[in-house]
Structure formats: C-alpha cells, structure tokens
Amino acid sequence: MRDFFCTINLDQEEVFRTQVVEKSLSPYFGEEFYFEIPRPFQWLSFYMYDKSVLQKDLRIGKVSIKKEDLCNYTGKENWFMLQPVDSNSEVQGKVHLELKLNELITDNGSVCQQLVVHIKECHGLPLINGQNCDPYATVSLVGPSRNDQKKTKVKKKTSNPQFNETFYFEVTRSSSYTKKSQFQVEEEDIEKLEVRVDLWNNGNLVQDVFLGEIKVPVKVLRNDSFQAWYLLQPRENGNKSSKTDDLGSLRLNICYTEDCVLPSEYYTSLRNLLLKSSDVQPISASAAYILSEVCRDKYDAVLPLVRLLLHHHKLVPFIAAVAELDLKDTQEANTVFRGNTLATRCVDEMMKIVGKHYLKVTLKPVIDEICESPKPCEIDPIKLREGDNVEINMENLRYYVDKVFREIVRSSISCPTLMCDVFYSLRHLAAKRFPNDPHVQYSAVSSFVFLRFFAVAVVSPHTFHLRPHHPDAQTSRTLTLISKAIQTLGSWGSLTKSKLSSFKETFMCEFFKTFQEEKFTESVKKFLDDVSSTESKEPSGLSEPVHLKEGEMYKRAQGRTRIGKKNFKKRWFCLTSRELTYHKQQDKEPIFTIPIKNILAVEKLDENSFNKKNMFQVLHGEKPLYIQANNCVEASEWIEALCRVTRCNQKRLSFYHPSAFLNGSWLCCKATIENTVGCARCTA
Fold first, then answer.
1. Which class is 355-531 in CATH?
2. What is the pLDDT of residues 22-69, one digit of tens each?
3. What does DSSP assign to residue 233?
4. Which end of the chain lies in a sparser environment, N or C, as judged by fewer CB atoms within 10 Å?
C-alpha cells in the first residue's frame, strides 16, 4: 500500500495540491478547486505522486488535456488513463523564428544561396525541478546528406530567453544548376531541406535536458523573409514503447468556461440599473431580479450581484425586498426560507463573504481538535465496526457537540454587523407575515445561521477555509454527525417539545434524549436574539475588520542584501478590510503592518527584476513591498483582493515602475532617482 497525492498544473506550474491519501492503491480525493486562470496556457495537467518521507516524491504518471479540448469534457465525469512522465512528455512553450533566403554571387560569378535563421526568443519554457531553466538552442539545417548544426549562448535562469542570434547556412545546388535571369528556388532541392531548432536545458555537470523542438521545411520560403511563433513539439521518436505499463487512471470532473470581459466603462449603465433594484416596486420588476431569472443557474447571477450590492452598501435593503416577496408565497410558518430562492442564495453568499473571519474565530480551534485528535463517534448500529463501543462513541460525540454548540452560542458578540442587520430584517418580516406564530421569528434566523452557515461549515471545513484539505473518511463521518446535531439544536428555539422527537434516524433520536433540557432551548433563543438585534451596534460594516485573505508567500527584505543575494524570506500574510500584515509564522504577532488607506497601488513586478516568477509589488508610503506568490493563480488572487479593497483610496498612484530599483537605477526606465514618477500607467 502506498501514499498518494495529486497536483493540478497549468502547463508545468503547480497551482493546487490535494491532501495525501495514505495506504491505498485506489485513493479517493473528493476535493474541489475553483480558480480563474490569469495567463495563457497550453495544457491543464494532473500529476499523480507517490509520497515519500525520506526521498523525493515519485511522479507516477499524469493526465494532460489541451486547452482546446477542455470544452469536450466540461461538466462531465471522465476517467483518464495516466501517462508516463519524461522529458519528452513535458515539452511546452514556443519559439519566435525568422527565416530568409538570400541570393549571393561568388567571386567566380556563380550564384549560391544563403539561408539566414534568426532565432529571436522563446516563451513559456518548462520549469526544471521547480526552477527556471538555463536554456540554449541548437539550430540545424538538415537534408538527406547534410546536418549542419550551430548553437546559441546559454541564458541563465529564465523561461522566456531572449536569444536574438542569427545563423547563416549555405544552400548548395545540384551540379546541373545554372544561373537564371531571375532567382528562383528549385523545388527539387528545397523539398529535401528543413530547419530544425532544438531547445535544451544546460545541465552543467549533469546531462542536458531536452525541452522541445520545431521543424520548418525550407520550401515555405520564396524570395521573402518568413517569421512566426512556433509551438515546441516533443520528439517524433521520443521514448515511445510498443507497450506502456498500466499506470492506473484518474477520475475528473472539469468545468471550464471562457468569458469575454469588456472594460469597466461599458458596464456603467448596467451597474447603475442594478444598484437601483431595491427601490423598484414590485421588486420582481427590478433589474437584479430579472437578471437572476434569465440566468440558467441562479448562482451565476447571485455571486456578482451580492458583491456589487455589498460594495455599494445596497445589499441589506435588496435582501429585505426579495425576502418579503418570498414570504408572500410561503403558506406555512415552518417552511420559511427553506427553498433555494434568490433571497436565500443572496443571504448564503453574504454569509460566506462577510462571515469568513467570524467562522474562523468561532469554529477553527474546535474543528482543528476534531481533525487532528479524532475520537470514534459512530453511533449508527449499521455502521459500527467490530470492537466499537457505542456507549463510548456516544460520549465522544456528545463531547464534540457540546463544545461546538458552546462556541457558537457564545459567539454572538463576534457576529459581523452586516449579518446582524440582515437577520434583523428577516426576523421582523417573518413575524409580520405570521403574527400568530411566536416561533417563526426564531426559525427565520436559525434557518440561515445554523442550517446554512455553522452546520455547513462543520461538515465542509475545507470549503470555508477552516482546514487546508478535506478530512479523512472517519473524521468526515464524525463531522457529519456533529453537523446534524447542530442543525437540530439550532432549530430548538423555534420548535415545541412535542416536535423534538421527530427524527429520521432512530439512533439520533436516542442520542438527543440526553439533550432535551430547557437550558439548550434558552441558549439558542438568546443567541438568535443577539445576532438579530441592531441595538448598541455601530453602522453596518464599520464595527470590525473583515478577514479577506491569508497565506504563505515570500517577501524581499526592503533595501537589504545577504552576501550579494537578494534577501527573500517566507512570511505569513494576512489581509483584512483595514490592513495588510505579514508575520513570521501563522498566529504570530505581525512583523509589519500597512494600513489599507496607505496603499497607493498594487501591480505586477517584471520577472527580470529578481529573476523570479509570480511577483507583485505593494506601493505605500515607504519603499515598495515586493512579494512572490507560490504560483500564478495565487498571485492573481492576491492582486485582485488588494486592488478591490484599495480601489477607493484617495491618493492612489496613476503611474508606477514595472521593475525594481537596483544598483542605482530603475530597470524599466533607467532613471537614477529612486522617488521619480513611474514610467508606466497603473492598471487598476
């Protein structure tokens, strides 16, 4: 039995990694990854690894899908055979080539032809052992009886080398060739010649690694020069055996979409129309409501709507308006806000956006305890394993449920003000719709905060960023049981004692007999009262910082070097609605803090600044903060998050320097004054 994990790669750049599934030859990962692709790519690849403790992880095989073919697999589950991984299968990138045939007259008056090959640059060459390669190219003129080869200089540590080298080859003619009044390339000669360009990584003390090749028949030339970008190809005879070992297969469900996004000014009229939606009567005639109706999937409209309305402080009145419409169609009090309507989905998305930090401070410690020190909690007689003690399991489950429940009902003071404002509106709308039911005001709130927020976060901690990966099967089952218990306890504030015995599973009914105490009901009611009250609260959105993003990246020490090398250190970054901080480690005190209001611009940093990919810069009052993300997706997400939270800053820059200030000058514009105005217009 072996330990496996899988990576998701754009070309060869790893952007996500699954958890390790231990001791299995048929690992089930069950993980979902959603991301926007920030750069051009050729292949979406999945690499299967055998985890090793003492040695380098072993690549078992891979699945690679061309960008053009992704649409054939979108929205469907498919099994893909794993293919072997070698240098020939890892080819990627492209080369810019210019070819020209010149006619030359020799000293004796005869005519000869000269082939001019100008290799300009390459783009997107593969990484070697996770690092930029040291590429060089060989340029050959190949025919039936010739193989003339020339070589470029080696370029250090780059995936986008600029060669700009020109090579000359004499094109020989048959002995029967005679000079003609007008130069014309003879088809019989040209058919047999081709230009071949091979890219290699210079291995220094080890063997050079093949990076790809292109072949261009000389017959494409006439009397004009010809230049184009060519995609690198694997060798035609490269390592193909007649029989490939069965490496296994990988089941994937891929959803790939491409959208054409116009400049923001094209959407001004639509944005203004959507922002007026909460004032339209009836609400079903508003632009936001109509947009949700015409979308094939409501979720496609809900997420951007919530973000837009939230940013412009229009979300609470809009949710109140669509919730009131929902309640008009609700006939029984015990079914309020139970469907997937525009109102319920808007509240769901609002809680996910605004409640991230709330979930973290409330549930993360206890979720970590459950996942890192799991206790057996199975109480279903059908699923009990041999040797399990149901009484001990029930005690373990009761301990976890008590702890999670206690953390939740004590957390009302941490509930974001915006969530409280929404719950306040929902509570009073429900009470107005069903004035004779004293419990509906509680069920209107508990159906969201317990059923759609806390209970969902408990059962799927990875989705809410409470854990880095999905838990194993046993822990997942424990979390499912805890989630069921939290859903039930959360509904107690709106149920009578006679309704508490109606459970689908008999074993859950037995478990809850120990919970039927007045203090649990009172605790739930008090919590629901607190989170649906606007008394003694500051205006919405001003009371506490919203936790936006965090993660481990590298930062460059500002102005310092270490033995001639740029000083890059791994740090834990945290972004809230108030500040950007970095820490030596997660949960440690911040080393450096930049208030959001002080950020002047956030822009990408040219790779040539420090010869590192995926870098961006945060410009503030002091020297720029240079940060390197782990991959292009992470870099794009951080830039987007920082730009979004600083978009309204009054002193934002209009111009910036795309490269760094090194050795007394800016690499981009060669200016020697460090605080001079930027040479490029800001992109955001």
1. mainly alpha
2. 888 899 888 889 899 998 888 899 999 998 877 788 899 999 999 999
3. B
4. N
